[in-house]
Design goal:
The chain is α/β, with parallel strands linked by helices. It has four helices and nine strands; from the N terminus they run E-E-E-H-E-H-E-H-E-E-E-E-H. The chain has one domain: 3-Layer(aba) Sandwich (Glutaredoxin). The longest helix has 18 residues.
Length: 155
């Protein structure tokens, strides 16, 4: 994972509609950048819906949600439609951005070591600096976990 306080690497990736999005396009806003393995799978669906359900709270602090997986734009469109998602999903088909962010590498699943997406989230501040990392994600309550972090800033 990248270090808190470091500059978040800029990138250009296509969204669910094929429009190229850059991280730098979101300067002036907080970005909740989350990496996940696969659209329409149980854990990823729980995580996306948890973020969807908290989105209104994030808008109040000028934050946007951006999800990144290796899935295609078409897969993202289905995922958005099936789960009524209200945020942008980006396609990193060659996992180059994931590699930059430490979200691609070896992981163990069912006793086997494989290469794949390492589920994690970054909070990037309006100046493009990594403010907070979530290397361990509980999919069903991840939105709440992020909201509690933002709530703690206002105390």
């Amino acid at each position: 994972m990248l270090e808190v306080g470091s500059m978040a690497p800029d990138f250009s990736l296509p969204d669910q509609d094929g429009v190229t999005r850059k991280l730098s396009d979101y300067r002036g806003k907080r970005v909740i950048l989350y990496f996940y393995p696969k659209d329409n799978t149980p854990g990823c669906t729980k995580e996306a819906c948890s973020l969807r359900d908290e989105k209104e709270n994030f808008e109040g602090i000028n934050a946007v949600i951006i999800g990144v997986s290796r899935d295609s734009a078409e897969s993202h469109q289905r995922f958005i439609k099936n789960q009524n998602l209200n945020f942008t999903l980006l396609s990193d088909s060659d996992h180059s951005v994931m590699e930059q962010y430490g979200a691609w590498g070896e992981k163990k699943m069912y006793g086997k070591t494989t290469l794949g997406v390492i589920r994690c989230t970054y909070i990037i501040n309006p100046e493009g600096i990594i403010e907070k990392t979530f290397p361990k994600v509980i999919t069903a309550t991840h939105g709440e976990q992020i909201r509690k972090y933002f709530d703690s800033l206002n105390k």
